[in-house]
């Protein structure tokens, strides 16, 4: 969203709502939000990254920073990870992910990252801090290197591309 539009929208909202019971807002749980992109090549294969910070494949994208929308997080992370300022398309999936280990529960948003032509693929500049490698794979080819929940989420994203209807999921279901 354009910064000027956002500022205008915030001004139109008026003064922030006051708490009836001071301190209550600080006691509410905080959810993490992440935005990722389903980016494909002309053969329909999905762009996967091999992150430097975890053992499984992932799609480009990442966790939203404070006061950043999942869509903007997706755009920023694509620029950082791939060196491309891609046009990010519509929402495909919103998936609630339960708390696991040290990670709080989260909302994972997947947007349509479009189809890259060979000349754009040749321009990919993978950030070595973020990823060791990248590859275009079918979901079946990548399945053994993905968490089951991401496989389910990406299956839903592909369905959303086909039928034009965004999907909501709980842990990929």
Features:
alpha/beta; 6 helices; about 170 residues; Nucleoside Triphosphate Pyrophosphohydrolase; globular; single chain; about 30% strand; NUDIX_hydrolase_CS; about 30% helix; two-stranded antiparallel ribbon; five-stranded mixed beta sheet
Structural description of this entry:
It comes from Kribbella steppae. This is ADP-ribose pyrophosphatase YjhB (NUDIX family). Its cofactor is Mg(2+). The protein has 173 residues and is an alpha/beta fold. The strands form 2 sheets. A 5-stranded mixed beta sheet has the order 3-1-5-4-7, with helices on both faces. Strands 2-6 form a two-stranded antiparallel ribbon. Helices cover 31% and strands 28% of the residues. The chain has helices at residues 3-13, 24-27, 70-82, 118-122, 139-142, 148-163; strands at 32-41, 46-51, 61-63, 91-97, 106-116, 131-137, 167-170. The longest helix is centred in the last third of the chain and has 16 residues, at 148-163. A hairpin with an 8-residue loop joins strand 4 and strand 5. The protein has one domain: Alpha-Beta Complex (Nucleoside Triphosphate Pyrophosphohydrolase), CATH 3.90.79.10.
């Amino acid at each position: 969203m354009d910064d000027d539009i956002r500022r205008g929208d915030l001004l139109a909202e008026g003064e922030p709502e006051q708490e009836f019971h001071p301190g209550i807002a600080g006691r509410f749980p905080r959810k993490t939000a992440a935005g990722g992109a389903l980016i494909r090549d002309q053969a329909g294969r999905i762009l996967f990254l091999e992150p430097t910070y975890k053992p499984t494949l992932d799609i480009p994208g990442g966790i939203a920073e404070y006061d950043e929308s999942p869509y903007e997080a997706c755009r920023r992370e694509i620029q950082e990870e791939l060196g491309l300022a891609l046009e990010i398309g519509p929402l495909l999936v919103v998936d609630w992910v339960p708390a696991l280990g040290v990670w709080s529960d989260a909302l994972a948003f997947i947007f349509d990252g479009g189809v890259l032509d060979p000349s754009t693929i040749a321009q990919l500049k993978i950030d070595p801090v973020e990823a060791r490698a990248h590859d275009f794979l079918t979901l079946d080819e990548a399945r053994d290197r993905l968490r089951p929940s991401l496989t389910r989420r990406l299956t839903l994203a592909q369905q959303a591309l086909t039928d034009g209807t965004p999907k909501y999921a709980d842990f990929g279901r």
